[in-house]
Amino acid sequence: MKKLMRLMSILMVLSVLFVACSSGKYKDGTYTGEGKGASSNIKVEVTVKSGKIDNIEVLEHKETETIIDGVKNELIPNIIKKQSTEDVEAVSGASSSSHGVLEAVNQALEGAKK
Fold this sequence. Notes:
- The chain is of the alpha+beta class.
- It has one domain (29-112): Sufe protein. Chain: A, CATH 3.90.1010.20.
- 48% of the residues lie in helices and 23% in strands.
- The chain has 3 helices and 3 strands, in the order αβββαα.
- A 3-stranded antiparallel beta sheet has the order 1-2-3.
- One of its GO terms (cellular component) is membrane.
- Pfam families: FMN_bind (PF04205).
């Protein structure tokens, strides 16, 4: 009986650890942040599902449209893929706008941290 109880206790602890580790590092929800781009502040919305970055949308900006399109098409998918802004390189020719989006995403994720 003691062995069974010990085994059940171990399984319970392992299941709690598994759930905690697999749930991601962010709280689910929608978060906004702002960062300074080349021509304006850039406002983004970050959606977290199952503890992971699911979507990033640029809500407001006054950047050059072709430049921000490059950021949307290259930088944002890399952030989602890496689940972080760390080691995500700025888009060539759009470094200020890229840094503005990275700053905005970091600000949004501050509210999502567990």
